[in-house]
Design a protein that fits this description.
11 strands; 34% strand; 3-stranded antiparallel β-sheet; mainly beta
């Protein structure tokens, strides 16, 4: 997977340039996302990683159907909802990626970044209801700083 480096105030982050795709699977529960990230030696971005990326710019692309955040393209691939009326919804209109929560061990809600066609900027939202809901995943890897991996 190709990566792009962004140097923040306190650490340097390698961002995967595409959403996670595991044998054609592109939507993951929060738990699945954490497990895959750990296996790959990476992690989910946290809110601070996203805020630093957003500082590098945000715009919606009608042509590409998605958001360009910090020079990286995030497709508007919708959401996967489980249940009676489950399935993918809001394709080409909005998208999201899972984020590490505020305090992952003690915080009951899962946090994600949401962006959409009518939005001037992405929003951070919390999800705490359905453990089977699935979102796309974009992984990061720390290059230096507190959580150095490489």
């Amino acid at each position: 997977m190709k990566q792009k480096e962004f140097k923040g105030k306190f650490r340097s982050i390698l961002w995967d340039v595409e959403n996670l795709d595991v044998d054609g699977k592109k939507y993951f529960t929060y738990k699945e996302a954490l497990e895959i990230a750990e296996k790959l030696g990476k992690r989910l971005p946290d809110m601070w990683d996203m805020e630093e990326l957003i500082e590098h710019g945000y715009e919606w692309s009608d042509k590409r159907k998605g958001a360009i955040i910090g020079g990286l393209f995030f497709p508007a691939s919708g959401f996967y909802y489980s249940g009676k009326n489950g399935g993918i919804s809001h394709m080409d209109l909005q998208g999201a990626i899972w984020l590490n929560g505020k305090e992952p061990e003690h915080y009951p809600y899962k946090t994600y970044l949401r962006f959409h066609i009518r939005g001037n900027s992405p929003t951070f939202e919390e999800h705490g209801r359905d453990e089977q809901s699935k979102l796309p995943v974009r992984l990061v890897q720390d290059r230096w700083g507190k959580n150095k991996i490489i």
